[in-house]
Amino acid sequence: MTARDVVFPAGRQALYDQNRYSPAIRSNGFLFVSGQVGSLPDGSPETGLEAQVRRAFANLNAILEAAGCTFKDVVDVTVFIVDPATRFERIWNVFGENWGEAPYPTLTGVGVTWLYGFDFEIKVIAKLPDTAVN
C-alpha cells in the first residue's frame, strides 16, 4: 500500500494529530478534504452562525492553499447543517462570499442533528492543478 499523501494547513497539524484524522489527502489528481467546521485554532467553535460558516470556509481555504488549489478547483461540495430549516438562508448568504462564479461545483446538503458542538460543516473534492505536487 502506498503511503497517504496528506496535506496539512499551516499551524493546525497538532489539532489533526490529536483528533487522529487527515485534513486532506491527494490521490490520482484529486484532493479529498475532510469536513471543515468553524473551529478556532484551539479546536473550539467560533461564536455565531455566520462567523462559524466564514471560519469553516477560511479553514477549508487554508487546506486548499496548502495543496496548491483554490475554491475554483473544487468540483464537489457536501455541507452538513444542524437544523437547516431555520439556518439555511443565513448560511447560504455567507456562501456567496466564497462560492465564486458559474460554473459552480456540485452540491449536496444534508440536515443533521449533531456536529460535535458546531452548526455547519463543509467537505469538498478538488481537482489538483497540473502544476500541484501529487
UniProtKB/TrEMBL annotation:
Coiled coil: none annotated. It comes from the Bacteria. GO terms for molecular function: deaminase activity. CDD domains: YjgH_like. It holds the Pfam family Ribonuc_L-PSP. One of its GO terms (cellular component) is cytosol. Signal peptide: none annotated. InterPro entries: RutC-like_sf, YjgF/YER057c/UK114, YjgH-like. PANTHER family: 2-IMINOBUTANOATE/2-IMINOPROPANOATE DEAMINASE RIDA (PTHR11803), RUTC FAMILY PROTEIN YJGH (PTHR11803:SF44). This is Enamine deaminase RidA.
